[in-house]
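Sample entry (142 residues):
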Amino acid sequence: MTAIQQPSTRLQYGERPGVPGMYLGLFHGRRNPKEQMSDWGFAGPVLGPLQYCHTTYMAFVHLHFVSGGDARTCCNSSYLEVELEVGENMIEFEGAYYEDWTVLVVSPEECRRPDYAFRSKPRTNAHQWHNNFSSAQSPKNT
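Predicted structure, serialized as tokens:
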């Protein structure tokens, strides 16, 4: 299976990337770090593909994008290296605060699947990466 090209718009957490690689997914978002949550919050962006993702002293998350185009699409940056701030145990990104995040590696099989014109019911391209990870860690019943 050949992966299709990633759209030129930034992906939201739960959407499948079109290109294999490493990504940072942000979720459980809020607009104010002091906001009392009665729900899970909102889904954030999926940033990548990345060459690396490195956290320093739980104060900064350093990202290095594979390409300048991805850095522009994801973070509106003209640099491959982008630094995200962590405060009050949340990543701050574009005025929102994300209490949870995950670094994930997307294989070619997990990439966005093409929308074929002949299908009467379109394919779903939604995927909950952290749910997938936790089930992969569970022992299988024999």
